[in-house]
Design brief:
With 231 residues, this protein is α+β, with helices and mostly antiparallel strands. The chain is built from three helices and eleven strands. Strand 9 and strand 10 form a beta hairpin.
């Protein structure tokens, strides 16, 4: 009876701890979602997403914030939630587009006065889009232990490509932004596609995706991005 009693108490403690851990994770997730929504809400520039022709699910993704708290860029997801490409091999193909909005900024001193922040340009948008696609990809036959080396190598390549948007790796694609035909730099790879351009409002747009053709896309300002917040 004493042994049974001890086991019962341990089970109760374990269940209590598990519930507490679940509540903690849920609270953390909710806090992260609120912070993301606040970042989108507090930005001093307009956010872009796919226009109303896209009727599928949308969601807020990561926000990039400077040391002084200034929001610099963020992403809105459309369609399926991206997973690592090798994990979906042999299954139904994912269909998603991620739109990255980047505030245009000149070369400037950091908020704390200790350094200089690089200017953000259309190359910044191309870089964020290219690295975003890589974050959800690795070759199907590559061992997981080698992924970090592969990712470092590919990330450096993506940076070099973003720094040379007039090079042979890129073509030009015209897509509507707020209804106005706008030129974009565009490239494809075995992992998906990446594009980048500048809007009439001065912000830069980067985008990447798989399973959805970039040729039929259009972009528009999002009046209330927090409507896409989860949690």
């Amino acid at each position: 009876m004493a042994t049974t009693s001890r086991v019962t108490e341990q089970d109760a403690d374990g269940a209590s701890q598990a519930q507490s851990g679940y509540r903690s994770r849920t609270a953390q997730g909710g806090t992260a979602a609120r912070r993301t929504a606040e970042g989108f809400q507090n930005a001093a520039f307009p956010w872009y997403a796919l226009d109303e022709a896209f009727t599928g699910p949308r969601r807020l993704m990561q926000v990039g914030v400077a040391a002084d708290g200034t929001v610099q860029h963020g992403a809105i997801g459309h369609g399926d939630e991206p997973t690592i490409r090798s994990e979906t091999a042999g299954t139904e193909k994912e269909r998603f587009t991620i739109v990255v909005t980047v505030a245009a900024s000149p070369l400037r001193r950091s908020g704390d006065g200790t350094g200089v922040l690089d200017a953000t340009t259309v190359s910044s948008a191309a870089w964020l889009a290219g690295s975003g696609l890589l974050a959800h990809t690795w070759p199907e036959k590559l061992d997981h232990s080698l992924r970090d080396d592969w990712l470092d190598q590919q990330t450096e390549t993506a940076f070099e490509l973003a720094d040379d948007l007039t090079g042979p790796a890129w073509s030009t694609l015209s897509l509507p932004v707020d209804g106005v035909p706008t030129p974009f730099h565009y490239r494809e790879s075995e992992f998906g596609w990446v594009l980048a351009g500048t809007t009439k409002s001065g912000v830069h747009i980067g985008a990447y995706g798989r399973g959805m053709s970039a040729y039929g896309l259009g972009f528009a300002v999002v009046a209330n991005p927090t409507a896409y917040a989860e949690g």
